Amino acid sequence: YVLGWKDGNGKLAMDYLVTNWTGENKILLQLALESWMYSQLERWCAKAWRTVMIPLVNTLLTEDDKDRRMNLFIEACSKLKEYENVEAASILELALWKRKLKSGWSNDGAKRQALDRGECRCVCGSNVVIPNVVQFLDLSVPTGP
After folding, report:
1. Is 47 helix (H, G, I), strand (E, B) or coil?
2. Any idea what DSSP says for residue 62?
3. Which residue of 11, 20, 76, 130 shows the fewest CB atoms closer than 10 Å?
4. What is the rounded CA–CA span in Å between residue 134 and residue 88?
């Protein structure tokens, strides 16, 4: 969370690490990206997403050109934001599905004894709720200094 805070100039701590390239900042950036991006993907058990992010971050860490490094950083942040939004939509769908399973009610209000799990997923309302929620997700990404 702290890595997302901006200072009085509207810059993230990561902006300073990416633009002021020294050996120490490279190590700090590597540690920050590992704890910020990798650990998040690890918590989600998103191995396919990690295979995309690890080479991207490694390229960023070996890049000497400041502008290219900043573009790679923005690309990595955009990818992570995209993954966060997919994860948020998935969690929302699971919550709607669970609610439907526990309620045992069909859409027309008739009480049913045992609802089929697959049927509950189809009638849980996620096709209506998720598109209306996704439009309010924060899709902004850092644009650099």
Report:
1. helix
2. H
3. 20
4. 9
